[in-house]
Predict the structure.
Amino acid sequence: MKLPLALSVAGAIAVSAIIIFLLTLKEHEEQVVALHTEQIHALGELISEHIGITMVSDSYHSADIDNEIKMLAANKNLLCAHVLDGRKQILAGAFFQIDHPSSSLSAQSLESFLKLPTGIYEREGKLIAVNDIGDVALGLGSVVLISDLALYVNSSRSAMLKHILPYVIAITLVAIIATVWLLSCFLRPLQMLSQFTQQIGQSKDYTLRFLNQYKYEIGALGSRINSFLDTIEVELTINQEQNATLVEQQQTMMRLANYDSLTGLPNRQFVVDNLRLELARVRRTNDDLALVFFDLDGFKGINDSLGHETGDLILIEVADRVVNLLREGDLVARLGGDEFLIIPDREVSATSLNNLASRLVQAFSEPFMLRGLALKVGVSVGIAKASDADYELSQLMSNADLAMYRSKAKGRGTYTLFTVDMVESYKRKMSIANSIDSAIRSDEFLVYYQPKIDRNGMIVGLEALLRWQHPVFGLVMPSEFIPIAEAGGKISAITQWMLERVCMELPDLQMLLTHKFKIAVNLSGHDLRHTALFDDIYELFERYQVNPDYFEFEVTESAYLQNFAIADKFFKRLTNLGCTVALDDFGTGYSSLSYLTRITIDTLKIDRQFIRELESSERSRLVTCTIIDLAKRLSLTVCAEGIEQTSQWQYLNEHGCDHVQGFLFSKPIPLSELLYISQDFGALLHTPPLENDEKNT
Ligand code: C2E
Ligand code: CA
Ligand code: CA
């Protein structure tokens, strides 16, 4: 802004100076002309008076006039002088030499000038003065003086230019310099303000303030800028605070999104994101990576019985134990519930993985000491390798899951390394799960019966056991499909089918066995969760006109106790109808026996494992005898299952076992084959053991 302003001001001053100078020059020229006119006029009058006096004198001689005229030569600028008579004829004349190119006078111009009447004239740059000689009335003639006005004016102008112009230029320059200096003085505050704003722009330091020692508009502008800065600073502080809050919130969100709030371990989201990247990396580098899945055995039971707070404390301690077990670089995460995952950062050889898994299982051998209780929590571990899953995340997770469920099935507190054949069995499992509904609809299930024998060898009952004639897999055993049906929520429908089929076949069985007997039907723990089961059974009995006395229901102790409230009511109502209840697989589940006095049962069924070990294990013999003794004390019937050898039956008989069941008498067989089995096994008791055992193997 300063430069254009200075240029404009300097220009204006220069133009004004020029205009003033030109006007002065013009005025000067006009004055010069007036002065010269006056001079020539006076000279003309003077000379004409002289000549008039000369002409009227007695001694007049024409040479006198010439002399008079020649005296005018001293007057510079005078071009010529002529004396005319009354008739305008030249009496005398003289030309004065002026050395200047413009000072020429043509004969024609001269002639016209001489004819001019009395007066003073300006023609063609010349000044012509015509004066009468003496009194006009005398008619003596006139004097004509011609001067070079232009030359006079020019020389006067040159003189003036020569003397005045340097001053004009000098003054103009001084004026311009002074004005520019003043301008820059006036503009300095503006410049300071501009520099200040530039400094703020560059440094972004809004705490700076303009040192405002100026008045007027600049002062006002400065304080306005300062007050803007105040506002900006306040806004900035608010912004910074809000930013900090936002960053904090973002971090909290990150933590919530990626970390488990209870244990502080990374969560599923975090681990899945990481795993995806890791898988891509190891696939590229042709490496391998392992996943170690584990969940807690019996955690649900602890949660249900001791409350979620205890469950939470256990999860926290689990996280602690596992973190202490790992090495640097290993990652442990909580996937949710009681499921955890470890990604070891080391070589994934079977040895090192087995090592890690056994240390993991080992870490849980010590009980958790919580609220004065020593709680034992085991882990089931499943391990899978990325290379076996073709580096696919979901496949890898499901392989590890599969291996973990294998561990659970094997018996808790174990670990399993995934192998490809597990997928086959998994597929079979899925296929079984998916075809249960259609199997019920198309009657693919079969009921097999296994006799129960009393101490005399007579059939006192039949246990109804399910079989599935699968269109693809052939005969599928209940130990395979019942857990699948339970997990898939299909067990109630199967139980329903089973009960109805037994009701339908009961008349045939009554014809076969002429004396009183019981049909034992197995119930799953899942059946006992539904209160409608009793009504369903009652409705079946009504529909098929069945006497409830024929029915016994077998249930495991864990199924009974886990659903105690519903189960107890249910079994009481069944007992009232005339049915009996047997506690299946007794001796394998709960270690406390105090519950036995509280539940509604008629029979204890000693589990097969004790019978199998009767000969080899002192402990099994002890358990068996204790169970028989216990049953007697509680006035319960006792039944042993899994008898394969006469020696086992003989032993049980000697110790007072009421009923027996096993391959020694018959495997479970369909109704059609029941016709052909013996009704009296009494002879077996008296047969030497070896003979019978050979027959049965
Ligand atoms: P469980 O109730 O303990 O049934 C007895 C199992 O022992 C039967 O196996 C039977 O075949 C087998 N068994 C009997 N005597 C001997 C023997 O001397 N030696 C050997 N090695 N085994 C013997 P099964 O039929 O395979 O049934 C397995 C389990 O499936 C049953 O165990 C029961 O828990 C379940 N189950 C069978 N049918 C049903 C049913 O209709 N509903 C429910 N909920 N479960 C059923
Ligand atoms: Ca049973
Ligand atoms: Ca059993």
Observations:
- The chain has 22 helices and 22 strands.
- The chain has a mean pLDDT of 90.
- The pocket of C2E (ligand 1) is lined by residues 450, 465-466, 477-479, 482, 498, 522-524, 554, 584-585, 608, 641-644, 661-663, 668 (CB under 6 Å).
